[in-house]
Amino acid sequence: MEPIATTSQLLRHCSVLFGDHLELSDDFLDYVQLSGIRCAYRRRVKETHPDLAAGRGEAAGEYSPEEFFAVRTSYETLSSFIAARVDRQAAAAAPPCHSWQRPAADWHAGPEAGFPDLAGLPRRQLRLGDLLYHLGLASWKEVIDALVWQKASRPRLGELGCRFGWLCKDDIGAIFQARHPGQLFGDTAVRLGILAGRQRDSLLFHQKIRQPKLGGFFIQNGQLSEVEMARCIALMRRHNSLHAPLF
């Protein structure tokens, strides 16, 4: 079995997640734990995820999807490296990891069809975009484009507040003027006393349930049919039922 990555490549991935300020060496790779990788990954996601750009005070087009892609790739690579290291330390043979191939015969069979071998997927819970990438049905750029599309298609928090009668146009203007760099719209509204905390939470909930499903992007673009997407979702649920939540 070929190594996941060379030592120099692994150290570069560590630098992406942990920053250049750490003194990275071969010893670091010996003691770094999955919990540390996850913690660093969560922090870097907050700094680079396209869906959180507005909360960081970045205008559309200012953030770099490539940076998020690099963070995600580093997390995937280091997680796989640590899993392989744990297997070696336990002196247990790792289960065969087959490269995933899209089943031509039963892919159109519908969500009720039997599930193929899941050994080729990462041993953790996956979101839909992750699954499509690992199945080879979408590139990371397409997944990021789908996330951006999903965010752009959902109703704005201020619009929902107006519909509920909790905000007016003057309130929205005041919130934008008083918002600190990186502060979210809802948090600013609560800080100013324009919204109560429970009202903000309610608006966020309704914003989330009103946003289009991520799979709609791939159906709309003709990459997958509705039957194929239903099959992917069923496969994702089956896979996730076998693994504990990431966080």
Description:
The chain has 247 residues and is mainly alpha-helical. The chain folds into 3 domains: 7-92; 118-152 and 212-243, no CATH class; 155-210. The chain is built from 12 helices and no strands. Helix 1 crosses helix 4 (65-89). It is globular.
List keywords for this structure.
single chain; 247 residues; mainly alpha; 3 domains; 12 helices; globular
Outline:
This protein is an all-alpha fold and 247 residues long. The protein has helices at 7-18, 26-31, 34-48, 65-89, 128-134, 140-153, 157-163, 169-178, 185-191, 197-210, 215-220, 226-240.
Helical/strand content category: mainly alpha
Proportion of beta-strand residues: under 5%
Q: Span between N and C termini?
A: 30 Å
- Please work out how many helical segments DSSP would assign: 12
Compressed to H and E, one letter per element, the order equals HHHHHHHHHHHH
Radius of gyration: 21 Å
User: Which residues sit in consecutive blocks of at least 5 with pLDDT less than 50?
Assistant: 91-112
Total number of distinct structural domains: 3
Helix content: 55-70%
| Strand tally | 0
Mean pLDDT: 79
- Major sheet size, sense and barrel closure: none
Specify the overall morphology.
globular
